[in-house]
Amino acid sequence: MMNMASLLEVENLKVHFAIKRGLLSRTVGRVFAVDGVSFDLAEGETLGLVGESGCGKTTTGLGVLGMIEATGGSITYKGEEITRTTPKKRRHLCREMQMIFQDPYSSLNPRLTVEQILADPMQIHGLYPGKARAERVAFLLEKVGLSPDYGKRFPHEFSGGQRQRVGIARALTLNPCLIVGDEPVSALDVSIQAQIINLLIDLQEEFGLSYILIAHDLAVVEHLCDRVAVMYLGRVVESGTYKDVYGAPKHPYTQALLSAVPVPEPKQRKQRMILQGDVPSPIHPPSGCHFHPRCPRRMDHCHTAIPTLQEVAAGHAVRCFLYE
Ligand code: SF4
Protein backbone atom coordinates (compact mmCIF):
# COMPACT_ATOMS: atom_id res chain seq x y z
CA MET A 1 0.00 0.00 0.00
CA MET A 2 1.50 3.34 -1.06
CA ASN A 3 1.58 6.16 1.43
CA MET A 4 0.60 9.71 0.42
CA ALA A 5 4.11 10.84 -0.33
CA SER A 6 5.01 7.84 -2.50
CA LEU A 7 5.95 8.64 -6.06
CA LEU A 8 7.05 5.26 -7.35
CA GLU A 9 6.51 1.69 -6.22
CA VAL A 10 8.34 -1.15 -7.94
CA GLU A 11 7.11 -4.61 -7.03
CA ASN A 12 8.89 -7.83 -7.99
CA LEU A 13 10.20 -6.33 -11.26
CA LYS A 14 11.64 -8.87 -13.68
CA VAL A 15 13.49 -8.22 -16.91
CA HIS A 16 14.57 -11.41 -18.67
CA PHE A 17 16.02 -11.47 -22.18
CA ALA A 18 15.58 -14.47 -24.45
CA ILE A 19 18.74 -15.79 -26.15
CA LYS A 20 17.80 -16.85 -29.67
CA ARG A 21 19.86 -18.95 -32.08
CA GLY A 22 19.57 -20.61 -35.47
CA LEU A 23 17.54 -19.93 -38.61
CA LEU A 24 14.27 -20.32 -36.75
CA SER A 25 15.42 -18.03 -33.91
CA ARG A 26 14.71 -20.68 -31.32
CA THR A 27 15.01 -19.60 -27.70
CA VAL A 28 18.00 -21.45 -26.26
CA GLY A 29 18.34 -19.65 -22.95
CA ARG A 30 17.46 -16.61 -20.87
CA VAL A 31 19.41 -13.75 -19.31
CA PHE A 32 17.99 -13.06 -15.85
CA ALA A 33 19.06 -9.40 -15.82
CA VAL A 34 16.54 -8.27 -13.19
CA ASP A 35 14.91 -11.02 -11.20
CA GLY A 36 12.36 -9.77 -8.70
CA VAL A 37 13.39 -6.28 -7.61
CA SER A 38 11.16 -4.30 -5.26
CA PHE A 39 11.58 -0.78 -3.87
CA ASP A 40 9.67 2.42 -3.49
CA LEU A 41 10.56 6.07 -3.78
CA ALA A 42 8.93 9.05 -2.08
CA GLU A 43 8.59 12.52 -3.55
CA GLY A 44 11.83 14.48 -3.17
CA GLU A 45 13.73 11.38 -2.08
CA THR A 46 16.96 9.90 -3.45
CA LEU A 47 17.42 6.15 -3.74
CA GLY A 48 20.87 4.78 -4.53
CA LEU A 49 20.95 1.54 -6.56
CA VAL A 50 24.42 0.16 -5.98
CA GLY A 51 26.44 -2.94 -6.82
CA GLU A 52 29.16 -4.15 -9.16
CA SER A 53 28.83 -3.98 -12.95
CA GLY A 54 26.51 -6.69 -14.22
CA CYS A 55 24.22 -6.66 -11.17
CA GLY A 56 21.20 -5.37 -13.11
CA LYS A 57 21.16 -1.78 -11.81
CA THR A 58 21.00 -0.07 -15.19
CA THR A 59 18.44 -2.56 -16.53
CA THR A 60 16.30 -1.84 -13.46
CA GLY A 61 16.52 1.92 -14.20
CA LEU A 62 15.66 1.39 -17.87
CA GLY A 63 12.77 -0.87 -16.88
CA VAL A 64 11.35 1.82 -14.55
CA LEU A 65 11.55 4.37 -17.39
CA GLY A 66 9.84 1.98 -19.82
CA MET A 67 12.91 1.96 -22.09
CA ILE A 68 13.08 -1.82 -21.66
CA GLU A 69 9.98 -3.97 -21.41
CA ALA A 70 9.39 -5.67 -18.06
CA THR A 71 8.93 -9.44 -18.17
CA GLY A 72 7.04 -9.46 -14.88
CA GLY A 73 6.13 -7.49 -11.77
CA SER A 74 4.57 -4.06 -11.55
CA ILE A 75 5.58 -0.41 -11.55
CA THR A 76 3.20 2.09 -9.98
CA TYR A 77 3.78 5.80 -10.55
CA LYS A 78 1.70 8.41 -8.72
CA GLY A 79 -0.77 5.66 -7.82
CA GLU A 80 -1.19 4.42 -11.39
CA GLU A 81 0.04 1.10 -12.75
CA ILE A 82 2.35 1.90 -15.69
CA THR A 83 4.17 -1.38 -16.36
CA ARG A 84 2.32 -2.10 -19.59
CA THR A 85 0.79 1.20 -20.59
CA THR A 86 -0.42 2.74 -23.87
CA PRO A 87 2.03 4.55 -26.22
CA LYS A 88 0.14 7.81 -25.53
CA LYS A 89 0.54 7.42 -21.77
CA ARG A 90 4.18 6.40 -22.19
CA ARG A 91 4.79 9.58 -24.19
CA HIS A 92 3.32 11.62 -21.36
CA LEU A 93 5.45 9.72 -18.83
CA CYS A 94 8.55 10.76 -20.83
CA ARG A 95 7.93 14.29 -19.59
CA GLU A 96 7.79 13.17 -15.97
CA MET A 97 10.68 10.69 -15.96
CA GLN A 98 14.07 11.50 -17.41
CA MET A 99 17.53 10.01 -17.45
CA ILE A 100 21.05 11.35 -17.01
CA PHE A 101 23.60 9.14 -18.75
CA GLN A 102 27.07 8.11 -17.65
CA ASP A 103 28.93 9.37 -20.71
CA PRO A 104 27.85 12.94 -21.41
CA TYR A 105 29.77 13.01 -24.69
CA SER A 106 28.17 10.05 -26.44
CA SER A 107 24.71 10.94 -25.08
CA LEU A 108 24.74 14.41 -26.75
CA ASN A 109 24.25 14.70 -30.52
CA PRO A 110 27.56 16.16 -31.80
CA ARG A 111 25.85 17.80 -34.81
CA LEU A 112 23.49 19.93 -32.71
CA THR A 113 24.27 23.06 -30.73
CA VAL A 114 23.45 22.98 -27.03
CA GLU A 115 20.49 25.28 -27.78
CA GLN A 116 19.12 22.73 -30.26
CA ILE A 117 19.78 19.82 -27.88
CA LEU A 118 17.73 21.52 -25.16
CA ALA A 119 14.98 22.83 -27.46
CA ASP A 120 14.38 19.47 -29.23
CA PRO A 121 12.43 17.72 -26.42
CA MET A 122 10.26 20.84 -25.95
CA GLN A 123 9.48 20.89 -29.66
CA ILE A 124 8.66 17.16 -29.75
CA HIS A 125 6.25 17.56 -26.82
CA GLY A 126 4.83 20.89 -28.03
CA LEU A 127 5.94 22.76 -24.91
CA TYR A 128 7.19 26.34 -24.48
CA PRO A 129 6.28 27.62 -27.98
CA GLY A 130 7.89 30.64 -29.65
CA LYS A 131 10.00 32.98 -27.56
CA ALA A 132 9.35 30.99 -24.37
CA ARG A 133 11.50 28.12 -25.72
CA ALA A 134 14.64 30.27 -26.06
CA GLU A 135 13.95 31.74 -22.61
CA ARG A 136 13.61 28.25 -21.18
CA VAL A 137 16.93 27.19 -22.75
CA ALA A 138 18.69 30.22 -21.21
CA PHE A 139 17.00 29.54 -17.84
CA LEU A 140 18.13 25.88 -17.83
CA LEU A 141 21.71 26.74 -18.77
CA GLU A 142 21.88 29.20 -15.91
CA LYS A 143 20.39 26.65 -13.51
CA VAL A 144 23.14 24.15 -14.32
CA GLY A 145 25.87 26.78 -13.95
CA LEU A 146 26.53 27.56 -17.63
CA SER A 147 26.33 30.91 -19.36
CA PRO A 148 23.33 31.20 -21.74
CA ASP A 149 25.88 32.27 -24.41
CA TYR A 150 27.12 28.67 -24.43
CA GLY A 151 23.89 27.67 -26.19
CA LYS A 152 25.50 28.42 -29.56
CA ARG A 153 28.34 25.96 -28.96
CA PHE A 154 28.62 22.28 -29.90
CA PRO A 155 29.21 19.46 -27.36
CA HIS A 156 32.86 18.97 -28.42
CA GLU A 157 33.63 22.55 -27.31
CA PHE A 158 32.95 21.67 -23.66
CA SER A 159 34.90 19.87 -20.94
CA GLY A 160 33.53 16.61 -19.49
CA GLY A 161 31.99 18.38 -16.49
CA GLN A 162 30.35 21.03 -18.69
CA ARG A 163 28.96 18.36 -20.98
CA GLN A 164 27.42 16.60 -18.00
CA ARG A 165 25.85 19.94 -16.99
CA VAL A 166 24.30 20.08 -20.47
CA GLY A 167 23.08 16.48 -19.99
CA ILE A 168 21.46 17.50 -16.69
CA ALA A 169 19.86 20.59 -18.32
CA ARG A 170 18.44 18.34 -21.04
CA ALA A 171 16.95 16.02 -18.40
CA LEU A 172 15.23 19.07 -16.87
CA THR A 173 13.73 20.51 -20.08
CA LEU A 174 10.29 18.93 -19.66
CA ASN A 175 9.93 19.63 -15.93
CA PRO A 176 10.30 16.02 -14.71
CA CYS A 177 9.45 14.69 -11.25
CA LEU A 178 11.78 11.69 -11.39
CA ILE A 179 15.32 11.50 -12.73
CA VAL A 180 17.26 8.26 -13.10
CA GLY A 181 21.01 8.99 -13.06
CA ASP A 182 23.04 6.12 -14.52
CA GLU A 183 26.52 6.55 -13.03
CA PRO A 184 26.13 10.33 -13.55
CA VAL A 185 29.58 11.26 -12.24
CA SER A 186 31.72 8.15 -12.65
CA ALA A 187 33.23 9.30 -15.98
CA LEU A 188 34.37 12.62 -14.46
CA ASP A 189 37.49 13.72 -12.56
CA VAL A 190 37.13 13.51 -8.78
CA SER A 191 37.19 17.32 -8.37
CA ILE A 192 34.42 17.70 -10.96
CA GLN A 193 32.39 14.87 -9.41
CA ALA A 194 31.89 16.94 -6.25
CA GLN A 195 30.64 19.92 -8.29
CA ILE A 196 28.12 17.80 -10.18
CA ILE A 197 26.94 16.10 -6.97
CA ASN A 198 26.39 19.54 -5.38
CA LEU A 199 24.52 20.67 -8.49
CA LEU A 200 22.22 17.61 -8.29
CA ILE A 201 21.53 18.38 -4.61
CA ASP A 202 20.71 22.06 -5.39
CA LEU A 203 18.41 21.14 -8.27
CA GLN A 204 16.60 18.58 -6.14
CA GLU A 205 15.91 21.20 -3.49
CA GLU A 206 14.78 23.82 -5.99
CA PHE A 207 12.56 21.62 -8.17
CA GLY A 208 11.50 18.94 -5.65
CA LEU A 209 13.01 16.18 -7.79
CA SER A 210 13.17 12.51 -6.87
CA TYR A 211 16.29 10.63 -7.92
CA ILE A 212 17.25 7.03 -8.53
CA LEU A 213 21.03 7.12 -8.67
CA ILE A 214 22.81 4.09 -10.08
CA ALA A 215 26.42 3.64 -9.01
CA HIS A 216 29.04 0.92 -8.70
CA ASP A 217 31.12 3.13 -6.38
CA LEU A 218 29.40 3.43 -3.01
CA ALA A 219 31.51 6.46 -2.07
CA VAL A 220 29.98 8.46 -4.94
CA VAL A 221 26.37 8.19 -3.78
CA GLU A 222 27.22 8.27 -0.07
CA HIS A 223 26.30 11.92 0.42
CA LEU A 224 23.37 11.97 -1.96
CA CYS A 225 21.09 9.14 -0.93
CA ASP A 226 18.30 8.99 1.63
CA ARG A 227 17.97 5.28 1.05
CA VAL A 228 20.10 2.63 -0.61
CA ALA A 229 19.30 -0.69 -2.33
CA VAL A 230 22.28 -2.99 -2.90
CA MET A 231 21.85 -5.28 -5.91
CA TYR A 232 23.56 -8.55 -6.70
CA LEU A 233 22.84 -10.55 -9.85
CA GLY A 234 19.40 -9.13 -10.51
CA ARG A 235 18.15 -9.09 -6.92
CA VAL A 236 18.17 -6.59 -4.06
CA VAL A 237 20.25 -8.15 -1.27
CA GLU A 238 20.04 -5.28 1.23
CA SER A 239 18.01 -2.09 1.46
CA GLY A 240 17.53 0.58 4.05
CA THR A 241 18.25 4.15 4.95
CA TYR A 242 21.65 5.56 4.13
CA LYS A 243 22.51 5.27 7.86
CA ASP A 244 21.42 1.61 8.06
CA VAL A 245 23.31 0.42 5.01
CA TYR A 246 26.47 2.52 5.36
CA GLY A 247 26.55 2.56 9.17
CA ALA A 248 25.59 -1.05 9.96
CA PRO A 249 25.74 -3.18 6.78
CA LYS A 250 24.41 -6.69 7.35
CA HIS A 251 24.77 -8.60 4.08
CA PRO A 252 28.27 -10.03 3.47
CA TYR A 253 28.21 -8.49 -0.04
CA THR A 254 27.43 -4.99 1.28
CA GLN A 255 30.10 -5.41 3.95
CA ALA A 256 32.66 -6.33 1.28
CA LEU A 257 31.71 -3.39 -0.96
CA LEU A 258 31.88 -0.94 1.93
CA SER A 259 35.19 -2.27 3.21
CA ALA A 260 36.69 -1.06 -0.10
CA VAL A 261 35.44 2.53 0.33
CA PRO A 262 38.32 4.81 1.39
CA VAL A 263 37.85 6.71 4.67
CA PRO A 264 39.59 9.99 5.56
CA GLU A 265 40.37 8.91 9.14
CA PRO A 266 42.86 5.95 9.19
CA LYS A 267 41.70 4.84 12.66
CA GLN A 268 38.19 4.27 11.30
CA ARG A 269 39.46 2.07 8.47
CA LYS A 270 37.65 -1.26 8.35
CA GLN A 271 39.36 -4.52 7.56
CA ARG A 272 39.30 -4.89 3.79
CA MET A 273 37.23 -7.86 2.57
CA ILE A 274 38.41 -8.89 -0.87
CA LEU A 275 35.64 -10.25 -3.07
CA GLN A 276 36.89 -13.34 -4.92
CA GLY A 277 36.09 -13.63 -8.63
CA ASP A 278 33.62 -11.69 -10.74
CA VAL A 279 29.86 -11.43 -10.70
CA PRO A 280 28.66 -14.74 -12.25
CA SER A 281 26.81 -14.74 -15.57
CA PRO A 282 23.11 -13.86 -15.31
CA ILE A 283 22.51 -16.57 -17.94
CA HIS A 284 23.46 -19.29 -15.45
CA PRO A 285 23.11 -17.69 -12.00
CA PRO A 286 24.35 -19.86 -9.11
CA SER A 287 21.77 -21.99 -7.33
CA GLY A 288 20.42 -21.06 -3.90
CA CYS A 289 21.82 -17.74 -2.70
CA HIS A 290 23.34 -16.18 -5.83
CA PHE A 291 26.21 -14.83 -3.73
CA HIS A 292 27.26 -18.20 -2.23
CA PRO A 293 30.29 -18.89 -4.53
CA ARG A 294 31.90 -15.64 -3.29
CA CYS A 295 30.54 -15.46 0.24
CA PRO A 296 33.08 -15.85 3.08
CA ARG A 297 30.25 -16.82 5.48
CA ARG A 298 28.34 -19.34 3.36
CA MET A 299 26.72 -22.32 5.04
CA ASP A 300 25.77 -25.71 3.57
CA HIS A 301 22.16 -24.80 2.80
CA CYS A 302 23.20 -21.53 1.03
CA HIS A 303 23.99 -23.68 -2.06
CA THR A 304 20.44 -24.93 -2.46
CA ALA A 305 17.95 -22.72 -0.62
CA ILE A 306 17.02 -19.20 -1.74
CA PRO A 307 17.00 -16.55 1.02
CA THR A 308 14.22 -13.95 0.99
CA LEU A 309 14.46 -10.24 1.74
CA GLN A 310 13.60 -9.99 5.45
CA GLU A 311 13.32 -6.91 7.65
CA VAL A 312 16.00 -6.95 10.37
CA ALA A 313 14.89 -3.56 11.73
CA ALA A 314 12.24 -1.05 10.68
CA GLY A 315 12.94 -0.21 7.03
CA HIS A 316 16.19 -2.24 6.92
CA ALA A 317 15.89 -5.48 4.94
CA VAL A 318 18.50 -8.16 4.16
CA ARG A 319 18.46 -11.25 1.91
CA CYS A 320 20.69 -13.65 3.85
CA PHE A 321 20.20 -16.78 5.98
CA LEU A 322 22.39 -15.28 8.70
CA TYR A 323 19.41 -13.08 9.63
CA GLU A 324 16.46 -15.45 9.03
FE1 SF4 B 1 26.39 -15.77 2.36
FE2 SF4 B 1 24.58 -17.67 2.83
FE3 SF4 B 1 24.04 -15.13 3.44
FE4 SF4 B 1 24.19 -15.92 0.90
S1 SF4 B 1 22.67 -16.60 2.43
S2 SF4 B 1 25.06 -14.09 1.75
S3 SF4 B 1 25.83 -17.42 0.99
S4 SF4 B 1 25.61 -16.44 4.39
Give a written overview of the molecule:
With 324 residues, the protein is an alpha/beta fold. The protein has a domain of 223 residues: Rossmann fold, CATH 3.40.50.300. Helix content is 28%, strand content 26%. Strands 6-7-8-3-9-10-12-11 form an eight-stranded mixed sheet. It starts with 5 loop residues before the first strand and ends in a 5-residue tail after the last strand. Bound molecules: iron/sulfur cluster. The site of iron/sulfur cluster has 14 residues, from loops.
SSE run: EEEHEEHEHHHEHEHEEHHEE
Helix count, per DSSP?
9
Q: Record the strand order, biggest sheet.
A: 6-7-8-3-9-10-12-11
- Overall pLDDT score: 92
Q: For the CA atoms, what is the radius of gyration?
A: 21 Å
What is the beta-strand fraction? 25-35%
Q: Level of helix content?
A: 25-40%
The biggest sheet amounts to:
8 strands, mixed
CATH evolutionary superfamily of the domain at 6-107 and 179-185 and 210-323: P-loop containing nucleotide triphosphate hydrolases
Q: Count the E strands.
A: 12
Spans of at least 5 consecutive residues whose pLDDT stays below 50 are none
Distance between the termini: 24 Å
Overall 3D geometry? globular
Q: Which class best fits the helix and strand makeup?
A: alpha/beta
**CATH uppermost class of the domain at 6-107 and 179-185 and 210-323:** Alpha Beta
CATH topology of the domain at 6-107 and 179-185 and 210-323: Rossmann fold
The CATH architecture term of the domain at 6-107 and 179-185 and 210-323 is: 3-Layer(aba) Sandwich
Catalogue the ligands: iron/sulfur cluster
